[in-house]
């Protein structure tokens, strides 16, 4: 009689990858939500008469 051995399902690897991806997403959001820098636009001053 042949007995089948229980093989590990291998679910640990996808869970670890998903957790690493979630940490990376949360970390990038936390870094990008810091102090917003205001955009500075330089516009030359021109007189209305010329």
UniProtKB/TrEMBL annotation:
Q: Does the keyword Transmembrane apply?
A: yes
Which key words are in the record? Membrane, Transmembrane, Transmembrane helix
Highest taxon of the lineage: Bacteria
Spell out where the chain crosses the membrane: 12-31
List the protein's name: Uncharacterized protein
Q: What organism is listed for this UniProt entry?
A: Rhizobium leguminosarum bv. trifolii WSM2297
């Amino acid at each position: 009689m042949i007995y089948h051995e229980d093989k590990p399902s291998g679910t640990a690897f996808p869970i670890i990858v998903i957790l690493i991806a979630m940490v990376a997403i949360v970390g990038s959001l936390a870094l990008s939500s810091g102090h917003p820098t205001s955009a500075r636009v330089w516009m030359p001053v021109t007189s209305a008469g010329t």
